[in-house]
Amino acid sequence: MGDMTTLEDIARVHTGWIIWRSDVGRWWATRRGPVDLDAIRMGCAMTLDADDPEALDAALAAQAELTAEFAADPAATA
Fold first, then answer.
1. Chain-centre distance for alpha carbon 22
2. C-alpha distances in angstroms, 10 versus 28, 65, 67, 70, 78?
3. What is the pLDDT of residues 7-31, one digit of tens each?
4. Residue 20: in which H helix or E strand, if any?
């Protein structure tokens, strides 16, 4: 996704997530809505964390792919 260096950059791209940075410097994201149990079984997460903004952006991009796969075929499980 490119150089995601600020909380605002990540939040602008990943609008379905609440993004924040903890007091100890970890980057976090929590979905704004619920996650279907079958989607969780496929690997979709409700909350993610990472050491830096680039890693969080990559994790969020991977979640977007999983969410799209689940939406295309809800019966598929990992």
1. 16
2. 11, 16, 18, 23, 27
3. 999 999 999 999 999 999 999 999 9
4. strand 17-21
Q: Where are the beta strands (DSSP E) in 25-65?
A: 27-31, 47-50
Per the CB < 8 A criterion, the answer to whether 40 and 74 are in contact is no
- Separation CA 70–CA 51 (nearest Å): 27
Residues 29 and 21: beta-carbon distance below 8 Å? no
Q: Model confidence over 32-74: pLDDT tens digits?
A: 999 999 999 999 999 999 999 999 999 999 999 999 998 888 7
